[in-house]
Amino acid sequence: MKHLDELFDALSATRTHREELYHWFHQHAELSMQETQTSQRIVQELEAAGIPYSVLGETGVVATIENGLGPVVALRGDTDGLPIKEDSGKDYACTQTQVDAATGQEVPVSHACGHDFHICSVLAALVAFNTCRDAWSGTLVGVFQPGEETASGARSMVEHGIADAIPHPDVYLGQHVLGTLPLGHVGTRPGPVLSQAFSVKVTVHGVGSHGSMPEMGVDAVLLASTIVTRLHTVVSREIAASETAVLTVGAIHSGAKSNVIPDSAELLINTRAYSEATSAHLKEAIERIVRAECEAARSPQLPEFEYYDAYPLTSNDAAVTQRVRNAFEARFGDEAQTLAQVPASEDFSIIPDALGVPYTFWGLGGFASYPHAPGNHSAAFAPDLQPTLDRGAEAMVTAASAWLINKNGD
Q: Which of 73, 82, 127, 400 has the lowest CB atom count within 10 Å?
């Protein structure tokens, strides 16, 4: 396809700048919903390329290139970092710290999930399409979404009117750099690809007492312990073997002294599932077990449930995914493959679901050390610069071209 070749040539012409830009984003990671410098640099790059844009909320950015009649394709790149001190050994490692607005504490920050590659991929695609307007027809939208790591950014963009800020897309596309694919490979999968998830803080109540007189109290530590034990029977005894589910108690907080029975305990619980029905079952089981154990322990008051970090199921549209897969195979050959289900979760689908738009979300291999690469959210997670940077941009261009380039005109 000569028009796709033209777009790839435009990418090649910007490689040096893209590498410098990637280094900047990597070294200036920012926390979720606090991506001020990041969004300002995105705007700077869009202005330099002459691409119209709008700002949504504090740090969300959308860019739109209208180029005649044709489909409307949206590309999404998330922009936030994590409160993790980078330990990748890269000479361009992030050393920034930032005050977390939620806690008031200063914490180290890094792009330990590869969102810097996602930003650069969408920017590169926008610039390439804007440069090569004779090669395609339609409208290309870039969505630079904040706050993915807290499941707040996509909802914020919906609340701040993304439906009115961009032309209604025909398709919504996104990718994520991973250590579970060979370097430079792209992996697609129809149907459920990323799990549905939620976290819940459970507070249970006891009656405080001296450690030597347990009969005078209700032991919140013991209560929390029995809850944990019982919760770990849910997946093994209540979920069908054909389904996939994870239930993790990641923290228990209670008490401060060995001879004091505390009057409360807090449990932090996280779940993952590949169907809404299974996720709903996990939620029901958690509340049922917690309430039953509290009653059995003579808890003086009802437990409290505080839900947070809720992520929807990411379930790729079959037809859209096949169209992208065909384009990848035609361009990348054997480096296009099937992606295994990823147990992590994303808020990617919130915007297309709110807009009523079909979507697909694929994986991008980022490490020569595959299959021994560090996992996302590891302090060592810093994908190899190349060919990851090039392939991320190429994948975005190739996928969008499946709608924006008229094959009969090549």
A: 82
Bridge partners (DSSP) of residue 72 are 139
Angle at 368 between CA 364 and CA 373, to 5 degrees: 80
* Two tokens, residue 197: 């998830």
The pLDDT tens digits for 211-267 are 999 999 999 999 999 999 999 999 999 999 999 999 999 999 999 999 999 999 999
Q: pLDDT for 137-159, tens place per residue?
A: 999 999 999 999 999 999 999 99
* Confidence at 108, pLDDT banded by 50, 70, 90: very high
Distance of CA 357 to the CA centre of its chain: 19
Cα distance between residue 68 and residue 121, in whole Å: 23
Alpha-carbon Rg for the chain, nearest whole angstrom, is 24
pLDDT of 408 strictly over 80: no
DSSP 375: P
- What is the spatial distance between Cα 133 and Cα 246, in angstroms, rounded to a whole number? 47
Dist CA 410 CA 398 (whole Å): 15
Query: 342 near 178, Cβ under 8 Å?
Result: yes
377 is in an annotated binding site: yes
Do 35 and 148 form a contact (C-beta atoms < 8 A)? no
3 labelled binding-site residue: no
115 marked among binding-site residues: yes
Closest CA to 51 of 139, 169, 118, 113: 139
113 annotated to a ligand binding site:
yes
Tell me the β-bridge partners of 78: 145
Residues in the chain, how many? 410
| Residue 290, both tokens | 């917690």
What is the model's pTM? 0.92
**HSE-up of residue 62 (Cα within 13 Å, Cβ side):** 25
Which residue has tokens 């039953």? 292
CA torsion sign, 329 to 330 to 331 to 334?
A: positive
DSSP assignment of 267-308, as one string? EEEEEEESSHHHHHHHHHHHHHHHHHHHHHTT-SS--EEEEE
| pLDDT higher than 90, residue 406 | no
State the angle between helix axes of 115-131 and 36-49 in degrees (0 to 180), rounded to the nearest 10. Answer: 10
N-to-C CA span, the chain? 6
Dmax over CA atoms of the chain, in Å, equals: 85
Is 210 part of any known ligand binding site? Answer: no
What pLDDT does 102 receive?
87
> Whose CA is closest to 173, among 210, 125, 134, 243?
125
